[in-house]
Amino acid sequence: MAVSDIQTAAPVRDASTTAARIRAADFVVKRHYLRWWEALPWLLIIAAYFVFPDRLTFGTQVLIGIMFALSLDLILGYAGIVTLGHALFFGIGAYTVALLTARWNWGEPISAMLLAIVLSAAAGLVSGWFLLRYRGLTLLMLTLAAAILVQEAGNYRSDITGGYDGVPGMEIWKLFGVFENDLYGRTYYVYVGVLLFIVWYVVRRIVYSPYGAALTGIRENVRRMHAIGSPVHRRLVTAYTLAAGLAGMAGALFAQSTAYTTLGVFDFDNSAKVMVMLILGGTGRLYGAFIGAAVYLVLEDNLSKLSPTFWQFGIGLLLVLTVLFARRGLLGLLEDAIKLFRRGGNA
Which residues cross the membrane (predicted)? Predict the structure, then answer.
């Protein structure tokens, strides 16, 4: 290459590098901005209140499922913490509410929910401090074992927990002393919907913050994060604690909305179900929890009516198709379809 060609190419490279840096900086600055399409899930949730007035009890469970999936997405999708024991914190939240009302005659929903968040977060902090020193298959088995140990401890003291028969005598007081959980579930649908919005906003602020970027860096290359001096373990434990508190919140709302809790909330099935929800929707995408939880629970409800024995076949088939042909989940598939449509329009 001639000297003149090198001199000509150098400014071009510098200009392209500068442009790339400007685009990257612009993305970092604006990535937390709200987009118009982010209002769509909330518009659908509001519309469902009026379109399906006789299905709001089920709708409440869908909202709780979304909250539970969001809590898992914070650690699995963004921090790369793979766990099969997330139901541990859901169960702690549910049993906090159940035991408060059944054993200590305290059924006030807000304070019980707050206590459930604190206890679940404390359990996440203690267990996470020890368990998150491990990764991979070891961590997977340890998180599963932790949930099983707590479940078996509850089964051993069935005189307190009610075992698999459930906690008897649960009586949840009126919300704010005024709004009763009516037969159609209108009160708790609104109550859980408002709390879900708060949880979504908190999680969104976390994942788009510098701390969220650090979690993504840990997920992508934990050795490099260690090399640059990032406090990896502390950040993982913090995320695990936050996710545990949010899962406990979902468990508390589940117990309050159904006024019934058994040791089944700690089951491996519960941990696996929320992971399937997230995989269906798309991990590390914030809104994958909305799509995945809604699709899973609606399919479960309808397929179980068609075939109470073989309904899981339909869920399994959808999961296989998603893993094979939509590895970024249904949300990723939707994004690809939109990009393809835009390219066709521009052509």
Answer: 33-52, 58-81, 88-106, 112-132, 188-215, 236-255, 275-298, 310-330
Is pLDDT of 12 > 90? no
- The average pLDDT across 208-223 equals 92
Q: How far apart, in whole angstroms, are the C-alpha atoms of residue 338 and residue 138?
A: 39
Q: Hey, where are the domains in the chain?
A: 36-346
Average of pLDDT values for 212-225? 91
The tokens describing 113, both together, are: 């929910």
Length of the chain: 347
- The predicted structure's pLDDT at residue 24: 46
- Class level of CATH domain 36-346: mainly alpha
Q: Which residue has the tokens 């859901």?
A: 90
What is the pLDDT averaged over residues 259-275? 92
Three-class DSSP labels, the chain: CCHHHHHHHHHHHHHHHHHHHHHHHHHHHHCCCCCHHHHHHHHHHHHHHHHCCCCHHHHHHHHHHHHHHHHHHHHHHHCCCCCCCCHHHHHHHHHHHHHHHHHCCCCCHHHHHHHHHHHHHHHHHHHHHHHCCCCHHHHHHHHHHHHHHHHHHHHHCHHHHCHHHCCCCCCCCCECCCECCCCCCHHHHHHHHHHHHHHHHHHHHHHCCHHHHHHHHHHHCHHHHHHCCCCHHHHHHHHHHHHHHHHHHHHHHHHHHHCCCCHHHHCHHHHHHHHHHHHHHCCCCCCHHHHHHHHHHHHHHHHHHHCCCCHHHHHHHHHHHHHHHCCCHHHHHHHHHHHHHHHHHHC
Burial class (CB in 10 A: 0-12, 13-18, 19+), 162: buried
Nearby residues of 32 by Cβ (< 8 Å), 6 or more positions away: 204, 205, 208, 209
CB atoms within 10 A of CB 70: 28
Give the Cα separation of 112 and 130 in Å (integer). Answer: 28
Both tokens of residue 205?
């602020």
Model pLDDT, residue 179: 81
CA–CA distance, 192 with 255 (Å, rounded to integer): 12
Backbone angles phi, psi at 228, to 5 degrees: -90, 5
